[in-house]
Structure formats: C-alpha cells, structure tokens
C-alpha cells in the first residue's frame, strides 16, 4: 500500500522546462496520458492568467484542449516551488508545440514546466494509501515489540 501511494504521488517525470520568454517551444511526448503545465512560484499562479497558452500537434496543427487543474497542486523541484496550472490529455504520441501569447516583460524569465501528471482521484487515493500504509507499518512494528500494549 505504501509503494502504490508513493508511486502515484511522486510520479512527476519532467518532459520539458523552458522560460516564458521563449514564445514557442517544441517537445516530444513518447506515451499517451495526462500531462500538466506548471509554473514557478507556488502562491502566484493567478499571474499566469494573463498568458494565453496553446498546445498543438506539430504535424497537423490540431489544438489540444487545456483544462484548469483543481485543486492547484504544489510541489518542489530542485528546491523551487512549482504549481500545476493546466492539464491536458494526449492520445497520440509525437511532436507537440506550446505557444505562449501576451507575454509580460516583468515575468518573462519565469520557468514553465511540462510534466506527467495523475488525475485527482488517484492523487487522493495515493495520499490515503501512503498515510494508512505508514500507520499500519508503525502499529505492526509496535505490536511485534510489545504484544500486550494495553495491559
């Protein structure tokens, strides 16, 4: 149970990281699944609302639908706080292109990160599995060392 919870919570393989100043960036997705767009600055995600983000398949310019994440999960990567801002689902592998419009010169050096993600249900189950697994392990060791704790 601990392993499954940790696997779901810690699954965050980074696909690409770049600066907002780069208005277009190409990246390759090698497997279908759920991905998220993240921004540096854990509590300041509202500043990303001024940007227009667009992801399209490079071959046929098909635009991928972006959805807001709820709740906006925070995580650390290389001692920096990131927040998941948008999510998108990919059904076909291949080359994709992210375009950022309406850039603000003040925050143009802020990094954007695209990473693998898990849905909300799996993330909450991962938290519960991790908590119950650690708790169960603790009580197992405690009862093995002291078989009659309440006598």
Structural account:
- The chain is built from 2 helices and 10 strands; from the N terminus they run αββββββββββα.
- It has 151 residues and is of the alpha+beta class.
- It has a single domain, classed as Sandwich (Jelly Rolls), CATH 2.60.120.
- Strands 1, 3, 6, 7, 8 and 10 form a 6-stranded antiparallel sheet that branches. It has a 4-stranded antiparallel sheet with strand order 2-9-4-5, with no helix packed on it.
- The mean pLDDT is 81.
Structure summarized in a few sentences:
This protein has 151 residues and is an alpha+beta fold.
Main sheet attributes: strand count, strand direction, barrel closure: 6 strands, antiparallel
Strand content: 35-45%
Structural class: alpha+beta
Shape: elongated
| CATH topology descriptor | Jelly Rolls
| Unreliable stretches | none
- The total of beta strands comes to 10
Please, what is the average pLDDT? 81
Give the name of the CATH architecture: Sandwich
What is the CA-CA span between the terminal residues? 30 Å
Q: Helical residue percent?
A: 10-25%
The domain count comes to 1
Rg, Å, rounded: 20 Å
Which CATH first-tier class would you pick?
Mainly Beta
User: What is the number of helices?
Assistant: 2
- SSE order, one letter for each helix or strand: HEEEEEEEEEEH
């Amino acid at each position: 149970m601990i392993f499954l919870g940790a696997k779901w919570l810690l699954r965050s393989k980074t696909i690409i990281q770049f600066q907002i100043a780069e208005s277009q960036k190409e990246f390759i997705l090698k497997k279908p699944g759920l991905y998220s767009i993240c921004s540096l600055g854990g509590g300041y995600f509202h500043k990303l609302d001024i940007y227009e983000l667009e992801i399209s398949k490079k071959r046929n310019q098909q635009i991928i639908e972006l959805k807001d994440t709820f709740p906006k999960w925070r995580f650390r990567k290389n001692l920096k706080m990131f927040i998941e801002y948008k999510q998108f689902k990919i059904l076909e592998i291949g080359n994709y292109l992210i375009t950022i419009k309406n850039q603000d010169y003040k925050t143009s050096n802020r990094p954007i990160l695209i990473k693998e993600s898990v849905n909300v249900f799996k993330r909450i189950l991962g938290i519960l599995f991790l908590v119950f697994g650690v708790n169960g392990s603790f009580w197992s060791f405690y009862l093995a060392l002291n078989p009659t704790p309440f006598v």
